[in-house]
């Protein structure tokens, strides 16, 4: 399976945090694991057989275009090759304002986009006919850009999200709210309404994601070092948080990956 991350233009970055493309020509079942990353998103896939999303003990067969919300529980997607699977991570408020889907109803869940809502973009059908992940990526991005024309971001919220990302989740919420002239309660309300998480939850997820990347890319580093560079107070705190999001302890996760 090939996985890559296309670059984004400045215009695209106003709506999209990042893009991931998965593609396989093998005729076998594959499992794509996903963990909390702080961002909802939209997916366009094509496979000859049904695609199933597993969240905890729940499972759901999905249509070709669907939106997913904040993922607190680990998610697994079973897909049979040959396939392409394009995923756009969206800035949280984009989902509700551009797609009219309540962000709070999407946590650990998926929402199908009806075919009549995306079929107007010819590149969707063309991507399927030609089995082209590049056409699929462009179709999905065009769809979001068109829908996002009515999106007006909350500038303070956007800056706060960017600051939490820049600090890799190691951010004191009290200082952050004060810096931007808000009470902690006001900032928390804005996050819950537009992100679907509190700022503390969002920060916790971003810090976890940083530690996950460290484990995936630095296989020779000690877990104590990963905990330190990721901003955890101690190794036990790191282990608890990691297990909460992956259902595995860090050393177990490393051994199986």
Automatic annotation (TrEMBL):
Keyword Transcription regulation: yes
Keyword field: DNA-binding, Transcription, Transcription regulation
MF-aspect GO terms: DNA-binding transcription factor activity; sequence-specific DNA binding
One Pfam family cited in the UniProt record for this chain: DUF6597
Positions of the HTH araC/xylS-type domain: 161-256
PANTHER family in the cross-refs: HTH-TYPE TRANSCRIPTIONAL ACTIVATOR RHAS, HTH-TYPE TRANSCRIPTIONAL ACTIVATOR RHAS-RELATED
Protein's name in the database: Helix-turn-helix domain-containing protein
Organism of this sequence: Leptospira soteropolitanensis
């Amino acid at each position: 399976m090939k996985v890559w991350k296309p670059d984004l233009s400045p215009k695209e970055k106003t709506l999209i945090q990042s893009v991931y493309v998965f593609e396989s020509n093998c005729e076998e079942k594959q499992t794509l694991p996903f963990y909390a990353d702080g961002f909802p998103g939209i997916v366009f896939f094509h496979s000859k057989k049904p695609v199933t999303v597993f969240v905890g003990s729940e499972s759901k067969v999905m249509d070709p275009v669907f939106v997913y919300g904040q993922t607190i529980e680990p998610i697994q997607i079973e897909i049979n090759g040959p396939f392409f699977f394009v995923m756009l991570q969206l800035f949280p408020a984009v989902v509700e304002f551009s797609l009219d889907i309540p962000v709070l109803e999407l946590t650990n869940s998926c929402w199908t986009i009806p075919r009549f809502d995306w079929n107007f973009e010819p590149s969707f059908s063309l991507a399927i006919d030609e089995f082209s992940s590049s056409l699929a990526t462009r179709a999905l991005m065009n769809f979001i850009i068109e829908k996002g024309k009515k999106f007006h971001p909350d500038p303070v919220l956007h800056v706060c999200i960017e600051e939490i990302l820049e600090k890799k989740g190691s951010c004191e919420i009290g200082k952050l709210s004060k810096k931007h002239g808000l009470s902690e309660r006001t900032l928390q309300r804005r996050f819950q309404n537009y992100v679907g998480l509190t700022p503390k939850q969002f920060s916790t997820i971003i810090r976890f994601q940083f530690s996950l990347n460290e484990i995936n890319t630095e296989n020779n580093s000690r877990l104590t070092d990963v905990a330190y560079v990721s901003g955890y107070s101690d190794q036990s705190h790191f282990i608890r948080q990691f297990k909460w999001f992956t259902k595995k302890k860090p050393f177990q996760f490393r051994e199986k990956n």
